[in-house]
Amino acid sequence: MLMDRGYLDEQELTDLTYGKVFIGNNGVLARMPDDPVDDDRLYLHHNGANFTLYQASKSDIRILINTIDGVTTAISNYPIKENQYGCLYVDHPSIQNNLTVRQAQDLFIQ
To answer: Are the beta carbons of 52 and 64 closer than 8 angstroms?
Structure first.
């Protein structure tokens, strides 16, 4: 399955200086539900289990995630941290940093 949406703009990527590499397809909480993704600043390329996702929220939290062969690289314009519950999150004042992985996922399931 091949899917594309949007495009990558090199200018958008220059401020992504904080990164984390991990094994598996664990998500990174990069925005809260009240901070929607800017549709004009969204890119998704998905081919089987490999994908590239870039998104910028309305409050300008930006993240680029690549997963290739089970290895995920995430880079953002804010530090990416892991809390005591194993939840990865972008360290921005608007993002909760005390959620479990399940709680973070449930924020976006309605």
So the answer is: yes
